[in-house]
Design goal:
Keywords: FAD, Flavoprotein, NADP, Oxidoreductase, Plasmid. This protein has 191 residues and is α+β, with helices and mostly antiparallel strands. It has helices at residues 21-27, 31-37, 44-56, 120-123, 139-149, 183-190; strands at residues 67-73, 78-83, 86-90, 131-135, 158-162. The protein is globular and about 60 Å long.
Length: 191
């Protein structure tokens, strides 16, 4: 992950908020280790742990609820969310649909040599001297390509990167991606 740690859940609008990444580091006794590492960015695992830590302390987050219907109540100016566990009203909705790894039918029988990016850390294949192809132009494809190029799993003889898109998605730290965190950009969505 290439995200600077200050782009957490709250720091841009409330730096002293108890849900800041810095507070997470303090609470988990990791602050000084992080400070002396001189890292500007955070690993996906660390950021995921931070998000889990923040979510565990909030009583208005619901996970693993099957959403059956969403309507907007114009009078109340709220969403009515009907789930398998009940009904909820909300001003805002954030849906996590989960990820289902997708492999095209033509490669499903090639389980040893062709697999989804989500399996890479479990398999940790030895790519030394092999010709490999990364399929997909998104963030995961970019991460796999970069790590393969750096020899994370051995030095490959050849690395190809293909995508059905006509471009490759920018990494999280691209200049325009930084604009997502500015008040001006956010106000364009919130009015």
């Amino acid at each position: 992950m290439q995200t600077v740690f200050l782009k957490d859940l709250v720091s841009a609008v409330a730096p002293t908020n108890p849900y800041s990444f810095v507070n997470y580091l303090v609470k988990h006794k990791k602050f000084y280790r992080f400070l002396t590492s001189r890292l500007r960015t955070v690993s996906r695992e660390e950021f995921s742990d931070y998000l889990r830590w923040a979510a565990e302390d909030m009583n208005n987050l619901y996970f693993s609820h099957t959403v059956e219907n969403i309507d907007f109540d114009k009078k109340r100016r709220l969403f009515l969310v009907q789930t398998s566990q009940g009904e909820y009203f909300a001003r805002n909705i954030c849906l996590g649909t989960g990820k289902q790894p997708y492999l095209p039918p033509c490669v499903k029988h090639m389980t040893q040599s062709c697999f989804h990016a989500s399996e890479m850390n479990l398999r940790r294949p030895d790519l030394s001297g092999k010709r490999i192809t990364v399929v997909g132009g998104g963030q995961s494809g970019a991460d796999l390509f970069l790590n393969a190029l750096r020899g994370e799993w051995g030095e490959a003889a050849e690395i190809n990167w293909v995508s059905r898109r006509n471009n490759f998605n920018a990494l999280d730290e691209a200049a325009f991606a930084d604009e997502y965190f500015t008040p001006e950009y956010i106000s364009g969505f919130s009015g």
